[in-house]
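Sample entry (131 residues):
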Amino acid sequence: MLDDFIRWLHVLAASVWVGGMITVAALVPLLRKSGVDRPVIQAAARRFGAVAWMALSVSAVTGVVQLSRLGVEVRGNTILMAKLALVGLSIGLTFVHQQIAREVSPAMRGAMEAVLLLLGLGILFAAVSLV
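Predicted structure, serialized as tokens:
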């Protein structure tokens, strides 16, 4: 029963994270086109960032717990290793993005956000492939 709860919490947190990225990826361009002031868009991005870091943290912790409790073998499990690599890349790029977002052009921010979205979708694809 505890293993089921941990798995549920892992999937919920990952859904919030990836679903939020998809939502923000669709919402920000619409806000820009409709003339919403940049500070409002930045405030929305910061709010999502707080939720995203929490969801990512819960997902990472529950993922580690699942690996240890369920005795999942990482070596030789190519899909799991790919998922872990994509998660690591996402964490690193998200951190870099948040540090430099104010200093780079909108095009660069958009490119980083697109890469993050693709990484999130890759993680989702790998996760579904593990089931």
